[in-house]
Amino acid sequence: MENPWKTKSVLDIYDNPWIKLEEHQVVIPSGKDGIYGKVHFKNKALGIIPLDESGNTWLVGQYRYPLDEYSWEIPMGGGPENEDVLKSAQRELKEETGITAIKWTKIMRIHTSNSVTDEEGFVFLAEGLTMGQTEFEETEQLKVIKLPLKEAVEKVMSGEITDGISIAGLLKVARLMNV
Amino acid sequence: MENPWKTKSVLDIYDNPWIKLEEHQVVIPSGKDGIYGKVHFKNKALGIIPLDESGNTWLVGQYRYPLDEYSWEIPMGGGPENEDVLKSAQRELKEETGITAIKWTKIMRIHTSNSVTDEEGFVFLAEGLTMGQTEFEETEQLKVIKLPLKEAVEKVMSGEITDGISIAGLLKVARLMNV
Lengths: 179, 179
Hints:
By secondary structure, chain A is of the alpha+beta class.
């Protein structure tokens, strides 16, 4: 499928350690000139659903600054572009929950907000778990709870969980595992 | 739950008809100074899952400029902040598929990418359908297909659909309706 958009030029607007904003001068599919503000994400979004032998998973609660809202989510974090996503996911799970896992299954590739950003995420199912110590980053003030996967899925269905990657990942695992 | 972040000042960086980028000077939860690049979305993201009496739904295919990738999604569009989200959803479904519907059910509130953006989306199930003419916007070059809801859900499970709102919405409808 050929790209119906043409890029005429790109203006760098903003850059920080996590994102880059560009304004693209474009020709839109109908042939007219236009602009496109594109937010490039420097990290992959990695969501992890740990699952123990009793059918429990873990959720992480934190205050999300851009939303000004508290959010319960699957363990999640950012993976640098030049790092293998599995390795990033393993590190994030360890940092946030202290858990290491033997069996890792990549269950999803997801584009979180494709009208404005190029953010790409991956969700992993992690099984064969060993508990350990958390290693929170200093920007984080996290609460971690353990609960049956079925209850986490109910928090999606009731609307209590609003994070996109968490909703998508939990519902996909539920369907894969008939929970 | 009290917000553990403190905002010291806000610098406006960029503004276009769809997004606004701000750099916030903050005190992070641990007490140190930091910055936060926040992307404000001027529109709500509205996803619609139309469902006819035979169990069919519709998907929309388009080239997504920020991804440089073709994407099959549920009918979707943006609703201005000052407009009722149901009205916006009804307009977007009509524009993209020509469909009007009698019964509308809001099935999801979703935050698409809450580490950087404040984008909020809503997914509606639309039933009691009447077919009509599409009214594509000029930036759009859309393909529309009709298919059983079950097949759309299979496209999620196989990884063919990667758009976050589409994945979340289709899996939730599938679970709600035992598809």
